[in-house]
Specification:
Elements (H helix, E strand, L loop, with lengths): L5 E10 L12 E6 L6 E33 L2 E3 L7 E2 L3 E14 L3 H4 L8 E6 L6 E33 L2 E3 L7 E2 L3 E14 L1
Parallel strand pairs: 1-6, 2-7, 3-8, 4-9, 5-10, 6-11
């Protein structure tokens, strides 16, 4: 008895694609221009970008393989001339693969949408003894919380039985043989957790 390769593949992809549309910031101009004598003049441009990402990926994979193979139980009896009494062989090839991808794809790329615009500030034609102040302030705040959890449980139970042949009460009989049991097991688990 030959069993073709048993292949158990599971591919779980937990992909969170994040994208933040770039805000259409207008160009900002701030000028102290043609100010009076002894005057106090202030001009300020402030741009603030704030993004908060909370990413939680959970993967739970359970595999329970229960394989039973039985060959033989042949009876050769009460013959004048009997041939060989042979059981077939059991060939089991189990191959499995679990791929779990957990990633927040595009998280870094989405920040390219952050723009502060084209900001210009200047003091021009200021009056005598005047106090003129210009300021451009750009602040980017980013808070990223990523939690990736993967749990893989594998339980394999293989029961292969061959033989239990009876050759009896024959005048002449051939050989009584049990087949072979060949078992091969290969399992690969890949967990890729990345941003």
């Amino acid at each position: 008895m030959k069993l073709a390769r048993l292949v158990a593949y599971l591919s779980v992809a937990l992909v969170l694609a994040l994208s933040v549309a770039g805000a259409a910031y207008a160009d900002n101009d701030c000028h102290n221009d043609t100010t009076g004598p002894d005057s106090n003049n202030e001009c300020e441009i402030e741009v603030e970008n704030d993004a908060d990402f909370d990413i939680d990926n959970d993967a739970d994979f359970d595999a329970d393989l229960d394989l039973d193979f039985d060959t033989g139980h042949n009876d050769v009896e009460k013959n004048t001339t009997a041939g060989d009494n042979k059981s077939g062989s059991v060939d089991v090839d189990v191959e499995g693969e679990v791929n779990i991808d957990q990633n927040a794809g595009g998280l870094c790329d989405c920040l390219e949408g952050w723009e502060s615009g084209d900001n210009n500030a200047s003091n021009q034609n200021t009056g005598p003894y005047s106090n003129n102040e210009t300021e451009i302030k750009v602040e980017n705040k980013l808070d990223v919380d990523v939690d990736n959890d993967a749990d893989v449980d594998l339980d394999v139970d293989v029961d292969a039985d061959t033989g239990q042949n009876d050759t009896e009460m024959n005048t002449t009989a051939g050989d009584t043989e049990s087949g072979d049991v060949n078992f091969s097991f290969k399992w690969t688990t890949t967990i890729n957790q990345s941003l």
